[in-house]
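WP5 quarterly update. Target: Competence type IV pilus minor pilin ComGF. Source organism: Thalassobacillus hwangdonensis. Length: 136 aa.
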Amino acid sequence: MATNTANGFTFVEVILSLLVFSTLLALLSPIFPMLHLENEYDELNVRQFFTFIETEVNISNEVIITSNLLVFSSPDGEAITFETYGNSIRRQVNGSGHELLINGVNAIHYTDMGRWFTCRIETEEGKHYEAAFSKS
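Structure tokens (predicted):
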């Protein structure tokens, strides 16, 4: 009697493996767009900078705004400034100190709107961010 010793896949095995593969692909396809590894570092930096501004506004007595400079008068009588320093924004207290708040800034512009003001930032990567703050 002759026996068939050929190794290989049957047609049913191929169909079942294609079915499993296509089912997994269909279930996992919504996850693929979430896997992009875009650099979110700039956005996090800018959000943190906006939080610094909001904190200073909340504890200050007065806010003085020019196009590229913020000055906060603290309850202790200190003048806290946020100013451009190269491609960074730094914080100084009474004209001394050097605390870098955000790096990689191409341009920053503050606009006084009366009871509130806006801060517009352009990063070195060309992204634009804007936030509004209430002075009171």
